[in-house]
Input
Amino acid sequence: MNSRIKRSLAVLPVALLVAGAMGACSNNGNGTTTASGKCDSKIAFFGALTGPNANLGINIYNGAKLAVDQYNAKNSNCKVTLVQKDSQGDEKQAPALAQNLVQDPKVVGVVGPAFSGESEAADGILEQGNLPLITASATNPTLAQKGWKVFHRMLGNDASQGPAAASYIKDTVKAKKVFVIDDTTAYGKGLADQVKKSLGGMVGGTDTVQPKQTDFQATVAKVKASKADAIFYGGYYAEAGPFVKQLRAANVNAKFVSDDGVKDPGFVAGAGKASAEGSVVTCPCIPGDEAKGTFFADYKKKFGKEPGTYGPEAFDSANVFLDGIKAGKTSRAAMLSFVNSYDKDGVTKHIKFDKNGEIAKSEIVIWSYQIKGGEIVKDTEIKATS
Amino acid sequence: MSTGGDAPRRSAGGRFVDGLRTVDERRVAGLAGIRSRWRALPLVVRIAALAAVAVFFYLLPNLAIPLIPTPDTNFASVLFTVAVYVLVAVGLNVVIGLAGLLDLGYIGFFAVGAYSVAIFGSPASPLATKYPWLMLIPIAIAVSMVSGVILGGPTLRLRGDYLAIVTLGFGEIVRLIAVNWSITNGQIGIPNVPAPPGKFPDGSPLFGVIDTRPFYWLALTVVLICMFGVKLLENSRVGRSWLAIREDEDAAELMGVPSFKFKLWAFAIGAGLGGLSGALFASRQGFINSNSFDVLTSVLFVAAVVLGGAGNLAGVTLGAVLISYLPERFRGAAEYRFLFFGLALIAIMIFRPQGLIPSRRRAVELADRKREAEEEVTAGA
Amino acid sequence: MNFEFLFANIGDLTVTGLSQGAIYALIALGYTLVYGLLKLINFAHSEVFMMGTFGALFAWQLVGLHENNPIPSVPMMIVYLLVGLVGAAVWSGVTALAVEFVAYRPLRRRNAPRLVFLITAIGASLAISEAVGIATGRQQFGMPDLFKTTTLVTIGDAHITNLDLGVIVAAIVMMVVLDQFINRTRLGRGIRAVAQDSDTAALMGINKNRVIVLTFVLGGVMAGAAALLYNLKIGVTRADIGFLLGIKAFTAAVLGGIGNLRGALLGGLALGLVENYGSALFGTSWRDVVAFAVLVIILMFRPTGLLGESLGKARA
Output
């Protein structure tokens, strides 16, 4: 053929190169693995670090980071790297990130994925790669029922939190009629459905709201008309804040009970101190200061604030993998069987997984927290009655 | 309120912008040179060159070209996403670029295609059928085309911006049905969406979850076939009718072009391509939920088409590649990437209102408009 | 379908629907003014509104009014309302102007196709909301309470609160003032002239660019007023609130007849009512489906909205 074609062919890769070169600066070479046998293992964090859901992800990342840093301080001759995969909580981004983790053979464990939705999209891929994962926050019960061998969960799922929230409403709030609201998300709806099931005939009305919604007057009108004396809200703080504010402005004084998605200072900021006062959130997470050992003090020292929701659980999750690496389990298969047979105290609970990867029933803890004077303070541990 | 103070400032800024534009126009002239030289090449050579480009793209995931692959995420997956976006842009280009209908709810068709495969194919769905994947794809395309006709039938008589808001509403309605309908199961979604058939000799599936390259090659093949088809359409009687409608609907109607019929065809074909891309997306993802189909993504689709150059296949392809590839390539700048993206949209459109690679016809129109604008300025002054 | 609930609460639903609709209407004015003049969808107007909510918040913080402060006395409340209005209007107005100068004016000088304006508008919208998102850490910010919400009068089963009444009245007053401004003043006549025929208007000695700037400022100020009312009613703002409300307001503008000021008011109020009634009938999750379905049906019978499009001929 002729030289023109060659020339035009040569142009194309060059053009692409130029396009690629524009971003060379953001390339944080992660290929600096030294071939020193088993001292280059990595564990990964998978969850939202940026975007609208970042708060929760950062709590989890910090918990895992603390564990890894403590480990590296003790084992300076054999350090472990914590890789971060920022999914922004987006199901669309999750599969490619999971593949990326699977393809790096040095990664032997994943703390996450943080949300139930992205777990659906990513866990199957981690399963194919035989890469063990421990989630410190995804609580949708069905995740454990898909036959994924690599799946583990460091906390109780919605099927245990739902009944606990219901029994709190029954026994502590002593409500007669409960209005149940969910925000259509996998998390909020899943939990609200569990609560409805446990409350049975006490449910005096239901409604749904949409993520990012800000005016809730139709829902407020429904709550008002139902004359319920308690509300259960399954969802996140972003919507719960303005909802409670508008609820109180309409002089509805039913007790507001919600979930760990609302356990965030953003809830109080959204609702205002006066409206948020007395609201209750339940969480399968333990309060930071209830964690055993020096976790609370260490965390506060490192990050300058108290551990957030799921921080202790993430710390425990990372430590399971770190113990495995310490024991020389640097292949995924070895790590998986190590995690499956793990039987040791963590800072949140005694850690032992059943065959589905759930934490043992007797170890599940559900706490309630109350908003008092604008702060989220621990209330009581709820004994699961059912 | 006084606006007297900004006259000199504007002209200073204007001079700067004009200077940049002169540089840009010189580059455009150079580009036009390439274009005419390209057209002067013999047909055989042109086909060979296009084939070589296609081969290059097929090989792309296997070539270790520095700086192109995405460091923080799986490159083949990103390439697959890019291919899906290109297919979306090719389909949307029929609606916006060729027929001149502003569709802000194109994501609706994408969602219909994706959910068709999931609802009829996933064993987890109550409406599951036993149809193989190869049957599901035509079903998805057909369902999307029907939804296009259902939307287009009553609304295509609306003009311009009324059509834009109605299509946007359609996109939202599709998403909200996906959120609220028990079968689509909202954010919990539908798992186990079937993948294309085929096995490696060792029995593992050809379209597995670990290696996305087969998906990418499949999508690339579909893209090339669809591009070829659209190109043929564009140069046919249908394509010329679309152009006539786009330029002046009343005049076209007077000349005997049944504008409603051709607009409906554009809508249906666009919807079918959107549905096909959605079906590919769902097959690859293996799990879909209502989160993937928001209005913002729909708006980005439109941005891809206009940014690249509405009406020109190479242009919309480039637009789609930029919109899908850049955010993944620069994951390191995650917090800032949409900010930069927004600024880039403004900057590119100001300097190249006709798009990065404009359609020839549209470029001529634009030159006319610009001349008019200059005349107006002189007349006004 | 829950007709029982709808009819039992029709009064309350109407009042709250109208007050939400009043906010839509004020935002819709921005779309309608710009559309009437330039025939372009100012997609970035949603962020003009969002900036207004932060403008009011910062103005309050500047004068020492914070989220959890006690409810101020009546004279102070009026001062704070004015401070908030000025803060919101200034921020919104400046944002609207910035959008015009950065995203639209350069394109107008080249007489670019209208589709291109839409893309720069999308770019501006993304850039503004992302910039604010980064600057605020994507947190949400609560608003101080300026007064306690109480029921003023009860008509039948409708509880009219001071908040809802205030929002509706304030919005209508703003609209009437704007309507009079466009119809009775010299500047308003300029806007109408350019909207009708910009070339002829230019020949008659009207400075087109000046009229356009004025229009963007007016739209911005109205969005600022909407932002203040929104702060009072919703009580929370975030960097990403603009997009959804913008779409709703644009829907309202189209519903009433885009380019038509009175249409924006009618469309906004109608949309607020439709949303509330739809939520009551089908459940809140179907609210937006009902809203858009009503829009499609109305456009099928009245292809240019309820009142038709006519900024130029606004004077009836």
